[in-house]
């Protein structure tokens, strides 16, 4: 499955880590303030979990909420913080386009939720956004063989999608290692994001498996001091 490895594989220590708090665990009555607070606390991205109560057994928020939050997803110096949309919806295409118009920066979708995966990737790129594929714990990586040259991000679920606050599924580590090999063999700049049950005490192991981007919902928003959690995660990543 793996293409022959290029001579010089990227040095893992050169990876730039990104922490993407998921607003699924934020206070929905104060989402604008929460986005500003978690950015102030050091968040690199805002992870935006879209659930349709069809692909997953939960219902969260849509493009209008993304549009409302766009102006809040800024750093104190005014620069934009990427909104990292995770579509747990089916069908995908119309909502992907709606989120693109609502200010999303990257859109990831589950290949099993789209009838034509390559067309959906093209559609997201046509909106000028980065496109990612999301893999549930039991879903195989095969589709990467035919999409690795088109995508910008791979998102590995380390919980079954639908809810925050679940426990990390250890089997995800092996999958992360496999994806890391595929990304390095492709020679392309593809981010490897992991989503679900990420905490300060497991983020290092997830990074060692090959991840460079970490979704954290309840680990961050469940705490009174967002900065201390994010700083603790960064310290583990730097260790
Ligand atoms: C679950 C979502 C995750 C979730 C992560 O379906 O995709 O992003 O919000 O929440 P924690 O970090 O609490 O597992
Ligand atoms: Zn997510």
At a glance:
The protein is α/β, with parallel strands linked by helices.
What does this structure look like?
By secondary structure, this protein is α/β, with parallel strands linked by helices. The protein has one domain (14-238): TIM Barrel. Helices cover 32% and strands 17% of the residues. The chain has eight helices and eight strands, in the order E-H-E-H-E-H-E-H-E-E-H-E-H-E-H-H. The protein has helices spanning 31-40, 63-70, 93-101, 117-126, 172-186, 203-209, 218-221, 226-238; strands at residues 18-21, 46-51, 83-88, 106-109, 130-135, 153-157, 191-195, 213-216. It has an eight-stranded parallel β-sheet. Strand 2 (46-51), helix 2 (63-70) and strand 3 (83-88) form a beta-alpha-beta unit. Helix 2 runs parallel beside helix 3. The longest helix has 15 residues, at 172-186. It is globular. The two termini are 33 Å apart. Residues 1-6 have low confidence and may be disordered.
Throw out a few tags for this protein.
239 residues; alpha/beta; TIM Barrel; eight-stranded parallel beta sheet; 8 strands; 32% helix
Radius of gyration: 17 Å
CATH architecture: Alpha-Beta Barrel
Query: In the CATH scheme, what's the topology name?
Result: TIM Barrel
Element string (H = helix, E = strand): EHEHEHEHEEHEHEHH
**Kindly state the mean pLDDT as a whole number?**
95
| Residue share in β-strands | 15-25%
Count of DSSP H/I helices: 8
Q: How are the strands of the largest sheet arranged? A: 1-8-7-6-5-4-3-2
CATH superfamily name? Aldolase class I
